[in-house]
Design brief:
Layout: H1 2-7, E1 16-18, H2 19-40, H3 48-60, H4 62-68, H5 74-81, H6 86-98, E2 105-112, E3 115-125, H7 134-137, H8 141-160, H9 165-185, E4 201-203, H10 204-210, H11 216-222, E5 230-233, H12 236-248, H13 251-266, H14 272-285, H15 295-319, H16 322-345, H17 351-362, E6 365-369, H18 387-403, E7 425-427, E8 432-436, H19 451-468, H20 489-507, E9 510-512, E10 515-516, H21 523-543, H22 558-569, E11 572-574, H23 576-585, H24 591-596, H25 603-609
Parallel strand pairs: 3-5, 6-8
Antiparallel strand pairs: 1-11, 2-3, 4-5, 7-8, 9-10
Helix pairs in contact: 2-3, 2-15, 3-15, 5-13, 6-13, 8-9, 8-14, 9-12, 9-13, 16-17, 16-19, 16-21, 19-21, 19-22
């Protein structure tokens, strides 16, 4: 890994550079070919090709964007300025949420955690401009400086909207006060990971009692859900605190907050001064990037974000061969079989829990490459007039697409990632694992590489997603995707003891100074890495049964090549700002710890490379779950 890191310095436009970023960059080159062609084609009005081409063209038209300044958000700014009462304030907040502007809280839909066949309305904490609540609450010097920089950033954006410097500074301070009060009432990112804590299904009347100064009836009507009878409130204490702030904070300060959230979210799509200020704080200060990405890359990303399945249809036709899907499916079946075998012999699990776990595993849904049913974008208007208008219309389209699911049966064909995405996921409420076409490429999967490398790369990624179904979160859901306790008390105790070993291991990793990985925050990903790698190795060994032993290649045995396949997935350099941001906010550990952490628990790794007790890659206290 050291050699890779030395040979792959971080380009100035990126906060990190690793195997994921290299593949993402390659995918963006491929997507650029598609959007460039669509931009130059005179396509049928309303077709996906027309929308892809026009969206990308409007994003690339910096002449029109710079001439417009903040024109695209002026109608919304005027509506905020016209607010005179609490009722009008709440109506405007709803309108901003519909346009993708995160104010006050988040509203949408999701599967009912305890009835996975149905979609329920949800209200969750939100409305913050900094990455998460602890950025407002920590008292170390780096956090204080970042808050100061955030206030300066807000001041500059208010000035760009035309406010005098002294007024802009006062407004920024008001924003910070409101957001700090919301942060204090928010659950921590560790608490939010507990699905039992965030499941609080209530009637509309119950929510109204929780927040007597917020009219939910009016809000539901505003967002197109009049007569909504019940919803899940993720964090009731947050809404109690929000209610108190609605009366304690003057309406003029709330209007300032709404203006701020509007300009902060839309700044990347406005004229150059807004874009530069947004980059300086969000990418340079928070992530450590030295230069802004080329315009075309930002526009490709925006097109994928807003029209991802329209773009994805063309992408998979051009770049995803059928044999890649077939081989990935074969590997999934092999990995599921390996975990099935493992479950039957786990010494710490009782027959009762083993039967439930096996049934859940056998019920897994598998999605590979792209959806069987593509998203319908016919209701979304896209043209070449002004880029930010396309962004706002796309956000409104997605908001209503989500809200219109409320009260309806779950659509199990739906995907949560676009086909070109370099990632994968497990959705516990669906009991499914999903692998977009974008990740089924080198270094994760290479049809020219031998099986050892592919099992160590893509096999371990598949194993990771399978194991998520049995991590500290996924293990709370049954084979139908319902939040239900299916463990015996003794098995739950045994599992928690083993999970605590993993959590303690990651607590010990030093990121920067006194900042360590948060073992409880990264527990699910770390359990999935350890379990995924373990079952991928078992699946690889099983695939060799009855075959001649694979020869050495480049001086490495088959077993060593398996672990090298894993290591090359996690080759990465990151800037210290990015490392701190990820550690504070992300349930995924840093790549260096993901690469080495699970291996140091594996006797098979130690055997393959001749590691002995006392070596750095052999832990004194070995963590083993699956």
């Amino acid at each position: 890994m050291g050699g890779w890191m030395k040979a792959n310095p971080i380009p100035p436009q990126y906060p990190r550079w690793g195997s994921f970023t290299v593949l993402l960059d390659k995918n963006q080159q491929n997507l650029r070919t598609i959007v460039d062609a669509a931009e130059k084609t005179t396509a049928t009005a309303g077709s996906n090709e027309q929308k892809i081409g026009d969206f990308y063209a409007s994003c690339m038209d910096t002449t029109a964007i710079d001439a417009a300044g903040a024109k695209a958000i002026e109608p919304e700014l005027a509506r905020i300025a016209a607010v005179k009462s609490a009722a009008e304030l709440q109506a405007e907040a709803a309108g901003l949420q519909e346009s993708g502007i995160a104010v006050m809280f988040r509203f949408g839909s999701r599967q009912d955690a305890k009835d996975s066949s149905q979609v329920i309305a949800t209200a969750n904490q939100g409305g913050l401009g900094l990455p998460e609540r602890d950025y407002y609450l920590r008292d170390d010097e780096k956090s204080k400086k970042l808050r100061d920089d955030y206030v300066k950033h807000a001041t500059k954006l208010f000035e760009l909207l035309g406010d005098p410097a002294d007024k802009a500074a006062t407004e920024a301070a008001a924003v910070m006060a409101i957001e700090t009060s919301l942060a204090k009432a928010s659950m921590s990112n560790v608490e939010v990971r507990d699905p039992n804590k965030t499941y609080n299904r209530m009637t509309a009347e119950g929510v109204q009692k929780l927040t007597p100064d917020f009219s939910w009836k009016a809000y539901f009507t505003e967002v197109g859900q009049p007569g909504l009878k019940e919803l899940n409130v993720g964090q009731p204490n947050f809404f109690k605190a929000l209610n108190a702030q609605l009366t304690a904070v003057p309406i003029e300060d709330w209007k300032t907050y709404l203006r701020w959230r509007l300009v902060d979210v839309t700044a990347p799509g406005l004229s150059e001064p807004f874009v530069t200020e947004d980059f300086d704080f969000h990418d340079k200060d928070l992530r450590g990037a030295k230069e802004i990405l080329p315009r075309w890359k930002r526009c490709v990303q925006a097109t994928d974000r807003n029209l991802g399945e329209a773009l994805g249809q063309v992408y998979v036709e051009k770049y995803f061969p059928p044999e890649a899907k077939a081989h990935a499916l074969e590997m999934v079946h092999n990995l599921v079989a390996a975990l099935h075998d493992d479950l039957q012999t786990l010494p710490w699990m009782s027959p009762e829990t083993r039967a439930q776990a096996t049934a859940k595993l056998q019920a897994f849904g598998v999605k590979i490459g792209y959806p069987d049913k593509w998203r319908d974008y016919s209701a979304l208007k896209i043209d070449r007039t002004l880029y930010m208008q396309n962004e706002l219309r796309s956000a409104a389209f997605e908001f209503h697409r989500q809200v219109e699911k409320i009260g309806k049966p779950v659509d199990r064909t739906e995907w949560g990632m676009t086909p070109p995405t370099v990632n994968a996921y497990n959705r516990s409420s669906m009991n499914e694992i999903v692998f977009p076409a974008g990740i089924l490429q080198p270094p994760f999967y290479d049809p020219k590489a031998d099986d050892a490398v592919n099992y160590g790369g893509m096999g371990a990624v598949i194993g990771h997603e399978i194991t998520h179904g049995f991590d500290d979160q996924g293990s709370k859901f049954d084979g139908k995707g319902n939040l239900r306790d299916w463990w015996t008390a003794d098995d739950q105790k045994n599992f928690k003891e083993r999970a605590t070993c993993v959590s303690d291991q990651f607590d010990g990793y030093v990121v920067d100074g006194d900042l360590h990985e948060n073992g409880k925050l990264v527990l699910g990903e770390s359990i999935a890495d350890l379990g995924g790698l373990t079952i991928a190795y078992a699946a690889y060994e099983k695939s060799l049964e009855g075959k001649p032993r694979p020869p050495e290649k480049d001086g490495f045995t088959a077993e060593q090549r398996f672990f090298l396949g894993w290591a090359q997935v996690w080759g990465a350099n990151e800037r210290i700002e990015y490392a701190r941001l990820q550690t504070n906010t992300d349930p995924h550990p840093l790549a260096r710890f993901r690469g080495n952490g699970p291996l140091s628990n594996m006797a098979d790794f130690a055997k393959a490379f001749g590691c002995k007790k006392g070596d750095l890659m052999v832990r004194d206290k070995v963590c083993k779950i699956w």
